[in-house]
Amino acid sequence: MSTFQAPKGTYDLLPPHSATYLAVREAISAPLRNSGYGYIETPGFENVELFARGVGESTDIVTKEMYAFETKGGDRLALRPEGTASVLRAALEANLHKGGNLPVKLWYSGSYYRYERPQKGRYRHFSQVGAEAIGAEDPALDAELIILADQAYRSLGLRNFRILLNSLGDKECRPVYRAALQDFLRGLDLDDDTRRRVDINPLRVLDDKRESVRKQLTGAPALGDYLCEACKAYHEQVRELLTAAGVAFENDANLVRGLDYYTRTTFEFVHDGLGSQSAVGGGGRYDGLSEMIGGPALPSVGWALGVDRTVLALEAEGVTLDIPAATAVYAVPLGEEARRVLFAQVTALRKAGIATDFAFGGKGLKNAMKSANRSGARLALVAGERDLAEGVVQLKNLESGEQTAVPLDAVVDEVRRTLG
Ligand code: HAM
C-alpha cells in the first residue's frame, strides 16, 4: 500500500476485470464502425464557455459539477463533463460539415469528469462511448442511433434494459409550452431555489424528486399536448421506424434530460438492476446546439452510453463476457542457454501474431508452471539443456498434459497448428 489512494469518486481498472471494460467499449463501438461512423478524439479539456453555453448555464453539470480551472496562461478551462459539445466544436473547427457530405457521423470513447456526490454507478471520473450524427434532420437518423445502441447492448447479452422515448419539441412549440408550464408552476408553493428554477429552466422542475414538490405537479401541462404538427409527425416517424426494426420502447412524457441542448427526440436506456443510477445511456436530438456555440444551423442527434454502468448492468444480469485468455503460449526456460533460445522463440511467436509470454526473473520449473497455468495459456514451451542438445523444445498441452518434442525451427508452425 502506498501513501496515496485513488481520488474520491474514482477507481482503478485492473486486470483481469479491466478486460471486461475493453470488451464493452469494443462491443458498443462495433455497430457504429459498421454503420459509417468515423472515430474522433478531442482533448480532455476545453474552454469552460463551450460547456456553459452548450450544456446550459442552469444545469447541475455546469453550475455544480464542472472541474473548471484557470491555467498559468490565464485560460479558463474545464475537464470535459460530456462529449457532444466538444465533438461539435471540433467538427465545426475542421469544417467537416462543409464538404456537402452530411450528416457527419462520428463516434468517440473516453473519460469524462463530473464533480458529483459519488455512489454506486456515479463517479467523478467515468467512461463513455458516444456517437454524434451532425447536420441532418431525418427521423431515420434518430432511429438508426437508437437501433445501434440497442444492438450494442444485445450483443453484450444484456436483456433487462428499457428504452424511454420522448419528444421535447422544437423552437416553435417549446417556448409556448415553457410559458404555460411557468404559469402553472408560479401558482405552486415552492421554495426560493425552485422558484428561481421556474424562471430559468421550468422543465427541470418536473424532474424534482422531492415528495413536497411531486404532489403539487399533478395537473401540470404536458409537453405532448403542446407539440407542433411538425414535431408530432417527426416523432411519429421515429416511433414507426423503431417498431419496424423490432426495437421496443416506452413513451415517457416525463423524460427530461440533464442537459439543455435537446430538441425533439430524447431517449434514455435504463437498466432495472442498478438501483438509483439506472440510466446506462442517453441521448437525443440537439438541433440548436451548433448555433449556440457560434456555428451555422446544423440539426444533429447523438447518444452516449456509460461504460461503467454497462459493466454494472452485466454484473446485475450475471452475464460474463467470453473474453479469450490474453496469453496462448507460455515459455519456460530451464537454464541460461534455454533462456536465450526460448526468448528468441517467444519473439518469433509474437511476430507470427500468437499471444506469448515468458517466465521472467529466473523462476524454477514449479513456479514457472504455476505462472503458465495462471496466465490462461493453452500451451507451454519448455526447454532444458538436454532438449537444446537435441535441437528441440518440449511443447506441453496444459489442458491434457500431453507433451511432444518439436524441432527448434518448427516451433511457430507446430504451435499454430496445435492452437488451430
Ligand atoms: P448523459 O446522460 O449525461 O448524456 O450521460 C450519458 C451516460 O453517461 C449516462 O447514461 C451514464 O451511463 C453515464 N454517466 C453520466 N454521468 C456519470 C457518472 N457520474 N458516473 C458514471 N456514469 C455516468 C451525455 O453525456 C450526452 N453528451 C449524451 C449525448 C450525446 N446526447 C447527444 N449526444
Automatic annotation (TrEMBL):
Residues given in the record as L-histidine binding sites: 82-84, 114, 128, 132, 257, 261-262
Pfam families assigned: HGTP_anticodon, tRNA-synt_His
Compartments (UniProt record): Cytoplasm
CDD domains: HisRS-like_core, HisRS_anticodon
Ranges for domain Aminoacyl-transfer RNA synthetases class-II family profile: 24-324
EC assignment: 6.1.1.21
Assembly: Homodimer.
Protein name: Histidine--tRNA ligase
Organism taxonomic ancestry: Bacteria, Bacillati, Actinomycetota, Actinomycetes, Kitasatosporales
